[in-house]
Amino acid sequence: xxxxxxxxxxxxxxxxxxxxxxxxxxQFDPAVFAEVYPSIETLRVSAGQFLFRIGDxxxxxxxxxxxxxxxxxxxxxxxxxxxxxxAGESFxxxxxxxxxxxxxxxxxxxxxxxxxxxxxxxxxxxxxFVPVFTNSPELLMRVxxxxxxxxxxx
Length: 154
What we know:
Layout: H1 2-7, H2 13-21, E1 40-45, E2 50-52, E3 57-58, E4 60-66, E5 68-75, E6 78-86, E7 90-91, H3 94-101, E8 106-107, E9 111-115, E10 119-125, H4 130-135, H5 137-150
Antiparallel strand pairs: 1-10, 2-9, 3-8, 4-7, 4-10, 5-6, 5-9
């Protein structure tokens, strides 16, 4: 087993953290995703600052490294909190992910995220995954299958 560990390629800690925080990728070998590493950005978001707003491009995976963000939705009935995102948690939409991978990125129509305290957030463009899934389409199929399996049936 030690020999196998030694032969594994080194995976940067930011990439490992991001993939482990994003539940759909946590079970895959991080080395498969090594080519997305250069696309990871570390953002410092001050308390009260918006990470993104309605109308911004919906094309990123976000993982909170420290701090807390509040994700809200706004419609004709007002604004409601969808989720409080804390350190180690991620947020993105699988449908937006698929839109980007198929060349149809959109903007946030009803959702925005605001830092509740000073926060550090990893941001990764979904487009960075295009070469990974082009080279290994079975990975994309497994991700979609996992998501479909976790969806409630009616």
